[in-house]
Design a protein that fits this description.
This protein is an alpha+beta fold. About 60% of the residues lie in helices and about 15% in strands. Bound molecules: adenosine-5'-diphosphate.
């Protein structure tokens, strides 16, 4: 046997083998598409058998030639039907191909032996044109597909090109000199073998090949999987899972998450062709979610005839659906779907289930991360509350103790010597401590109002310069030289009381934390749509490590102690809240031993 004969035999054997495989598939899944494949390879197998018969018996007849010719002609027509199963073929083209097939086949049967050259050329032209159309359609289909499906379509396109070229060489033989025929015929046999292999790979890829094609996409997905639970939003996780499943299986994918309150599966991707919500009774996905068993629906419309129109409109021809569940927690379902009937194979179902299981693990991890964050936030809130209570109790205790002791002393004195003159300095101390207590209580209330966003109220036009002058003239600041400087009024729309409170607090701190008789500067100006207030003192300053935290609740500088400087560390926290609720900003420049400048910038519009 020559090499050329061996090649020819191999390609014929592959075509027969393919027929057996796709024939069995067609019997198992009675779909138009599986029948079309079986018919295509049935025709090639018949041609092969006839050629073998002729080679074996040496019998040739006009009838046999006509039958082989007709079967060969039927191939591109059947191929066109297959293209139709994968993509759109204009009905006109289909009809033209059918009529052409009947006419040429009729001519073949009526023509004398040997077949006249013009008829051979028409036959070849018919074949080549349809095969070229098929190849282009498959290439275009491949471009629109992903993963395995893309490679399969590419293989089918290549097979079609090889088959067309094979027929072209057969046609050429009729035009060549006898010496050239063996070479061209050998090329033809090789093309036949290549087309057989390419079709085999495209239409019935062995499991090992599918797995090899899926492996890179699967590996890429698994590499990303560990980081998915930490994506900022569940929608992003779902999208990544969908993309991974789609790329690996070679189709489109959608994940529906179960919403227990509405009892529906919610599809989050707005680009999905599926409806956003699927509830009881609707769609196959709900059926699978209920049964908790993964299923392959090769023909969605047939599996659920009432919704066949919906499936067709949404471009869903076949479906793989797997439930996403973690233990007895039913989280949702993964749908992998395609608008072409021939894309999936039986073992893609286990791959879909694998993705659904991965999705369950990832979504569960996500839920655990969210839960942990919630618990942490709760712990933090509890800790803050405890801090707040202990700081408040501690700060209230000092003036309260003095107040009670002083009052008791006055009481005892009044009982022992009812006629003795009133102890004015003792009463003054009581008033002083009571006032301090009241300030502390007000600060606590303000801090809690601030948290609830209820601190800043009605706004009105306010001249900050006038307000600053008011603050500076308070008796409490007589111990220092408080100097207000401004070139012109600075007017904005603010909550008068609260902005007054900010300026007062800053001046109060400047006075509290700087030596008696030193200078406190209050400078006001308007620049770039902002009112600027600077309060500068020549006091103790703020240590560098404290500066970033100085506006935090209860934070006090390391260089202040309770005995020398009473306070709770709430004043600046409240100031910051008031300024920010006005759309402004507050910050500080300070150096220990030199002094501090607190800056406030408020939009003159007031609202920021
Ligand atoms: P309090 O004065 O009641 O402690 P504040 O929130 O007003 O609370 O201030 C927080 C801390 O910021 C103070 O404890 C002090 O350490 C520091 N601080 C505030 N103003 C000044 C200032 N003008 N000079 C030095 N340190 C200051």
């Amino acid at each position: 046997m020559t090499a050329v004969q061996l090649i020819s035999l191999a390609s014929q054997a592959i075509y027969v083998l393919l027929f057996l495989i796709v024939g069995a598939q067609a019997l198992r899944r009675r779909l138009r598409a599986t029948w079309d494949i079986a018919l295509f390879f049935g025709a090639t197998t018949l041609i092969v058998l006839e050629l073998q018969f002729v080679a074996f018996t040496g019998a040739t007849s006009a009838l046999l030639t006509a039958i082989v010719g007709t079967l060969a002609l039927a191939l591109p027509y059947l191929l066109l039907r297959l293209v139709g199963d994968f993509a759109h073929v204009p009905p006109v083209l289909m009809r033209v191909a059918e009529v052409g097939l009947v006419l040429i086949a009729g001519a073949l049967f009526l023509a004398p032996e040997p077949t006249p050259l013009p008829l051979v050329l028409i036959l070849v032209a018919y074949f080549v044109v349809l095969a070229a159309y098929g190849a282009v359609a498959f290439v275009r289909g491949a471009r629109l597909s992903v993963g395995v499906t893309r490679r399969r379509m590419e293989a089918v396109a290549a097979g079609t090109v090889f088959l067309g070229a094979d027929v072209l060489t057969a046609g050429l033989e009729a035009l060549l000199s006898p010496a050239e025929v063996p070479i061209v015929s050998a090329i033809g046999q090789l093309l036949g073998l290549l087309s057989a292999i390419a079709y085999f790979v495209g239409f019935a890829p062995p499991r090992i090949l599918r797995r090899a094609w899926q492996e890179p996409e699967l590996r890429a997905f698994l590499q990303r999987a560990a980081s998915l639970p930490r994506l900022p939003q569940t929608t992003a996780i779902v999208r990544a899972l969908q993309d991974g499943a789609a790329a690996t299986i070679g189709a489109r994918a959608a994940i529906g998450l179960y919403d227990p309150t509405l009892h529906v599966l919610r599809f989050q991707d707005p680009h999905s062709v599926l409806p956003n919500e699927v509830g009881a009774g609707d769609f196959l996905v709900w059926r699978v979610f209920q049964s908790q068993r993964a299923e392959y629906f090769p023909d969605a419309a047939r599996a659920h005839p009432e919704l066949s129109l919906a499936y067709r409109q949404r471009g869903v021809a076949s479906l793989l659906i797997a439930p996403i569940s973690a233990g007895d927690q039913h989280l949702g379902a993964l749908e992998v779907y395609t608008d072409r009937p021939l894309v999936f194979s039986e073992d893609d179902l286990s791959l879909t289930q694998l993705f659904a299981d991965q999705a369950a693990v990832i979504l569960e991890s996500r839920a655990l991360i969210d839960e942990a964050a919630r618990v942490r936030a709760q712990e933090e809130a509890t800790r803050l509350k405890e801090d707040f209570l202990s700081a408040a109790a501690h700060d209230l205790k000092t003036p309260l103790t003095t107040l009670v002791a002083q009052a008791q002393f006055l009481e005892r004195r009044a009982e022992a010597q009812p006629s003795a003159p009133a102890d004015v300095s003792g009463i003054k101390r009581i008033v002083h401590e009571a006032k301090r207590l009241s300030v502390l209580v007000i600060e606590l209330l303000d801090a809690s109002r601030l948290e609830q966003g209820r601190l800043v109220g009605e706004r009105e036009p306010v001249d900050l310069v006038e307000l600053a002058r008011d603050v500076a003239s308070r008796d409490a600041y007589r111990s220092h030289h408080v100097i207000v400087s401004a070139d012109a009024p600075v007017v904005g729309s603010y909550d008068l009381r609260r902005i007054g409170q900010v300026i007062d607090n800053l001046v109060e701190n400047a006075v509290k934390y700087s030596p008696e008789a030193s200078e406190v500067q209050l400078a006001l100006a308007q620049r770039d749509g902002h009112a600027l207030i600077d309060v500068t003192d020549q006091g103790i300053g703020i240590p560098v490590p404290d500066i970033p935290h100085i506006f935090d609740r209860f934070h006090r500088g390391a260089n202040v102690d309770d005995r020398r400087f009473a306070g709770m560390g709430l004043g600046l926290f409240i100031c910051k809240g008031i300024v920010e609720q006005h759309g402004g900003r507050i910050w500080v420049d300070s150096a220990v031993g030199t002094g501090s400048t607190f800056h406030v910038a408020l939009p003159v519009g007031g609202r920021g």
